[in-house]
């Protein structure tokens, strides 16, 4: 990007902090994607967030479409969440004993979600999914699980597995340090591929404990599935007495209060939550029918625990945030706003004949450098297209627009992004597209 491109923002203080961070943390970060490895420049160290805005250590201001990777559906630092957290924190940070706040958050969730009867809080999405898998295995007395290529379910051993070649394969680990024997319990198939799923069930008859899917796959681009495929997954699980796990760590409370289960009206056996549920504090959860949940310790034999599970301060943030989401009209307004934003960017790109598509659901959107009308599997994404994302990412930062530092990541719109902010962002995105496609 040469003429027309904006000058680089100062990253002096961020760069200094990054150098120091590298002396403390592997790669200078506490979670890998933050290291900006797939985009230009060094990571920005964030100092403050307010509404839809972020400020970095050098004082640069951005409209934020990363929103802490999803949790911040009300935007940064919303007064209602902050005030509730401060109020609860005044009584102490953690007791390792039950509090009324856990009941309150559970009641708010369960009474507004017809797909679940009981819930257990954890401290992260990874923990929630890991526990859901153990619950499925303990309930069915079977060991193998099926996952889909391109779905991310956190970093537990049996889920850091990707597909090898061929129609149905044993997974190969996608991280060092995972025993091959663990990966052998995970079968990986392509999304949107009924035949592969059928074959997996035939090949491992009566061995499949569960199929786990992100019903809204949003960790490898936004690979929106047809309802027909999700229903097929539901049906084949029923036919084979396997459990269906919806990993709703992103889609839960995002595409609607009842998440993707409600959006598609498909009843999963176990659902996992994270991100939004904790209002920006570390909370995850898994939920199911009362019967299945009765297998969890101390009622049943499936062990799962946590020193900080149901932490009162985190519960307070969840209660405050979900209370706002449960108000009538919340999702309609947010989703309409997102649809308008996505539509208008798409219209611009189409009018200019750019090979560029905006995929969207709820308040999630994803920019794809493609001319395909649908992208439903990981293999449908051309890795070479990520070069364009890299250019776009850098130019947008220079124009005060913050996206997650990878073209495989989706963007989020929060209730705090108002019309003026979105207009401002759109103008910058249009001009950036003109530069990227010049
Ligand atoms: N499942 C899904 C669908 C996710 O998107 C993520 C995180 O991005 C996880 C699980 C893991 O959650 P956490 O990062 O809170 O451990």
UniProtKB/TrEMBL annotation:
Gene Ontology CC: one annotated term: cytoplasm
Domain of life of the source: Bacteria
N6-(pyridoxal phosphate)lysine: residues carrying this PTM: 275
Catalytic activity: (S)-4-amino-5-oxopentanoate = 5-aminolevulinate
Keywords tagged on the record: Cytoplasm, Isomerase, Porphyrin biosynthesis, Pyridoxal phosphate
Subcellular location(s) per record: Cytoplasm
Cofactor needs: pyridoxal 5'-phosphate
Record carries keyword Magnesium: no
Annotated Pfam families: Aminotran_3 (PF00202)
GO terms classed as biological process: protoporphyrinogen IX biosynthetic process
Subunit record text: Homodimer.
Similarity-based family: Belongs to the class-III pyridoxal-phosphate-dependent aminotransferase family. HemL subfamily.
Name of the featured protein: Glutamate-1-semialdehyde 2,1-aminomutase
Phylogenetic classification of the source organism: Bacteria, Pseudomonadati, Bacteroidota, Sphingobacteriia, Sphingobacteriales
């Amino acid at each position: 990007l040469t003429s027309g491109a904006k000058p680089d923002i100062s990253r002096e203080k961020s760069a200094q902090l990054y150098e120091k961070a590298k002396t403390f943390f592997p790669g200078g970060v506490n979670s890998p994607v933050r290291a900006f490895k797939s985009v230009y420049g060094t990571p920005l160290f964030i100092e403050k967030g307010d509404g839809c805005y972020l400020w970095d250590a050098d004082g640069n201001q951005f409209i934020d479409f990363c929103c802490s990777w999803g949790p911040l559906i009300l935007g940064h630092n919303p007064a209602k969440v902050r005030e509730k957290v401060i109020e609860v924190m005044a009584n102490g940070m953690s007791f390792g004993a039950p509090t009324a706040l856990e009941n309150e958050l559970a009641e708010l969730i369960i009474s507004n979600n017809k797909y679940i009867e009981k819930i257990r809080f954890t401290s992260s999405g990874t923990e929630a999914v890991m526990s859901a898998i153990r619950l499925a295995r303990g309930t069915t007395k079977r060991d193998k699980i099926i996952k889909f290529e391109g779905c991310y379910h956190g970093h537990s051993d049996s889920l850091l597995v990707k597909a090898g070649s061929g129609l149905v394969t044993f997974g190969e680990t996608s991280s060092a340090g995972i025993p091959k024997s663990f990966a052998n319990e995970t079968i990986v198939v392509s999304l949107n591929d009924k035949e592969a799923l059928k074959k997996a069930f035939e090949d491992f008859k009566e061995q499949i404990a569960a199929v786990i899917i992100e019903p809204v796959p949003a960790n490898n681009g936004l690979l929106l599935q047809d309802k027909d495929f999700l229903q097929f997954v539901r049906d084949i699980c029923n036919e084979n007495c396997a459990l269906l796990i919806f990993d709703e760590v992103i889609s839960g409370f995002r595409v609607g209060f009842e998440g993707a289960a409600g959006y598609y009206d498909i009843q999963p056996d176990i659902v996992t939550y994270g991100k939004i549920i904790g209002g920006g504090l570390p909370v995850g959860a898994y939920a199911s029918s009362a019967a299945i949940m009765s297998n969890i310790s101390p009622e049943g034999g499936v062990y799962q625990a946590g020193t900080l599970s149901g932490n009162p301060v985190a519960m307070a943030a969840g209660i405050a945030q979900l209370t706002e989401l449960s108000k009538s009209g919340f999702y309609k307004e947010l989703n309409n706003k997102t649809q308008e934003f996505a539509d208008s960017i798409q219209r611009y790109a189409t009018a200019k004949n750019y090979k560029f598509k905006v995929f969207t659901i709820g308040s999630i959107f994803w920019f794809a450098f493609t001319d395909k009308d649908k992208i439903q599997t990981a293999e449908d994404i051309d890795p070479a297209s990520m070069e364009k994302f890299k250019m776009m990412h850098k130019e947008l930062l220079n124009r005060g627009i913050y996206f997650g530092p990878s073209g495989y990541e989706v963007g989020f719109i929060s209730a705090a992004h108002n019309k003026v902010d979105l207009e401002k962002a759109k103008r910058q995105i249009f001009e950036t597209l003109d530069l990227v496609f010049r």
